[in-house]
Amino acid sequence: MFPDVLDTVPLRRAVDDALEWVVMHWGGGFEAAAYPLLMLLNILERLLIATPWWAIILLLTGLAWLATRTWRLPAVVLVGLVFIGLMDLWRDAMATTALMISATLAAIVISIPLGVWMARSLRVRHVVVPLLDLMQTLPSFVYLIPTVMIFGPGKIPALIATIVYAAPPLVRLTDLGLRGIDPAVMEASRAFGTTPAQRLLGVQIPLALPTILAGVNQTTMMALSMVVVASMIGAGGLGYQVLQGIGRLEVSRGLFAGLGIVVLAIVFDRITQALGKRLQARIGLAEMRI
Amino acid sequence: MSQQQTADYAIRMRKVTKIFGDAPLQALEMLRQGKSKADLQSESGHVVGLDDVSLDIERGQIFVVMGLSGSGKSTLVRHVNRLIDPTGGEIEVDGVDVLKMNLAELREFRRSKVTMVFQKFGLLPHRSVIDNVAYGLETRGVGKADRMQAAAQWIETVGLAGYEQSLPRQLSGGQQQRVGLARALAMDTDIILMDEAFSALDPLIRSGMQDQLLSLQQQLGKTILFITHDFDEALKIGNRIAVLRDGAVQQVGRPEDIVLRPANAHIEEFVRDVNKARAIRVRSIMETGPAEACEQAVAMDARCEDVLPLFADHQWVGVLNGQGVQIGRITARQVIKALARYAPQAG
Q: What is the arithmetic mean of pLDDT over B329-347?
């Protein structure tokens, strides 16, 4: 056994007390800060549930057709969504989709500027990369406990946990995409007297867009993979059905809800991937593979 | 130096030195105290990119900087528009000290005074040909209708009409560089920097682009700083040539000065392989003075390769100045002597 040199009890107590102090004094502030997130999620969820089922199926199938111009993906999307409806999972699927979309939107707002900043400064990258590693490897339950303590069980901690887990790939891929741009193109742009903002918006972002979209795709997938965990602290949706299946030992409930998650994953993954490929082909980087 | 003399030059570089490394200023001090470049590199890891370069580039000239890879020629050209900042020295463009410019002034300078053509083209892959050509004008703030009209005109001038809506990757290398050239010409700046602009092209295409550049230059009269590693190219298009080696200028002169009087063994090596008949002009090897009336005559700017066929039927040919007055004559012997000077010794 490792020698018992340090008594960890006071250390742990100090951490616990510190968190409690934060909850007491700053809890309200945190909640107010996260309120816009909750609003976004609620509006999206209400919108998706209020929209008639056939309109959503039509929209997603149409999007799939626009992204691929073949009949295969639309057919898969149609069958999958009809399956969700038949299994009586429509409402849960919409709640899950709302959670995933709002987590992805929030991740985009945070991650793309952070990725841009990282691509510009080596020092920032030295700080951010280990942080991203930590976010991706730390078991989500570890940071679920403090978020639940601060915000109380419900949708906000679920959303925050999902963002923490899903944002890193987008930050990484934004950084990668920006750094991967041909230096000759950047130099030419500089030689014509462009401002840094003109280079960012006119050259870097457009050329990195396929890579950034790959990051968005990763983020949506990771957000979906968090739904079961998120449902443990009150997110609802398909994850909650799986959780109930576990609790009641109802294999069928867990299985069907799980398949519903898979359907959503396929739908959103294939559509965003196909859109990314189209974009890549349009700006002439089709041979580039990530 | 009087003010007027300064104004005759488009670009002047005075003792420009560039050192790459962590502490370039200290390294510069060591270099000035007489440390050799090799020692500097092995001891402190500093690389000397440019070593005390002074150049005067006259307005309206094609000035070629020639050197092998690693000679610092691409570093040199980037000092003119400050894509690279020097470690020491002075750079004047149009009589203005570019090193004193702040960022905003520098951007304005790049938008209005000097433009550039790149070896790897540097086209924006997501923009069509016409949008690429209009790119510089767009940064300058020219309205859409005006810049599109100008861009369309330059696309036609470089012979790419019909490709306006193509993407760069759909074009061949030569066509892409025409886009690069049109993009620079559309800026209508007095000074154009061309960094190995034709080096990435196939020999035939390259030759065609050189001819096109020369004919454009006849109409436009720009100041062109042209970088190349190809001595033949330098001789063909340069009004003046500077030879660069290890970041230092070895010789500056007219093409025939360099071919006829190479300053050192390094330059002689280039001269040995070059087509001297194209480089040497009649005026620099003719015998001047009154001569009897001739049956056949050439202009004094004619190249040796132009007079050679005439010797099949004539012992000598007259040489005329710009006004058509005979100012001397040239014999086959003189031409042969000039051409044979650096040929390998006959065994």
A: 71
Say if domain B3-11+57-113+189-274 classifies as CATH 1.10.12.10.
Answer: no
Which amino acid, A114? Answer: L
Choose among A192, A195, A282: nearest Cβ to B135.
A192
Question: Which CATH number does B280-340 carry?
Answer: 3.10.580.10
DSSP for residue A264: H
Among the listed residues B16, B15, B35, the one whose alpha carbon sits nearest the alpha carbon of residue B26: B35
Give CA angle at A21 (A17, A26), nearest 5°.
150
The first and second tokens of residue B115, run together, are 């433009």
Q: Could you report the per-residue pLDDT of A139-156, keeping only the tens digit for each?
A: 888 888 888 888 888 888
Distance from CA of A191 to the nearest CA of B (A): 6
Specify the amino acid at residue A147: T
- Give the predicted TM-score (pTM) of the model: 0.81
The one-letter amino acid code at B94 reads: D
> How confident is the model over A18-41, as pLDDT tens digits?
888 888 888 888 888 888 888 999
**Please, what are the domains in chain A?**
36-282 (1.10.3720.10)
Number of other residues whose CB lies within 10 A of the CB of residue B57: 23
Chain B from 82 to 141: CB within 8 A of any A CB: 83, 106-112, 115-116, 118, 120-126, 135-136, 139-140
Q: Domain spans of chain B?
A: 3-11+57-113+189-274, 280-340
Confidence of residue A65 (pLDDT cuts 50, 70, 90): very high
CB contact under 8 A, A191 and B115: yes
Calculate Rg over the CA atoms of chain A.
22
From A188, A194, A284, residue closest to B122, measured CB to CB: A188
Q: What is the ipTM of this complex?
A: 0.82
- Residues B61 and B9 sit within 8 Å (Cβ to Cβ): no
For the stretch B105-131, pLDDT in tens is 999 999 999 999 999 989 998 899 999
- pLDDT tens, B78-97? 999 999 999 989 999 988 99
Residue that has been written with the tokens 């741009």 in this structure: A181
Q: Give Cβ neighbours of residue B117 (< 8 Å, ≥ 6 apart).
A: B177, B180, B181, B183, B184, B192, B193, B194, B195, B197
Q: Which two tokens stand for residue A188?
A: 């030419």
**Chain centroid to CA A250:** 29
- Between strands B248-253 and B287-288, the pairing is unpaired
DSSP 3-state of A46: helix
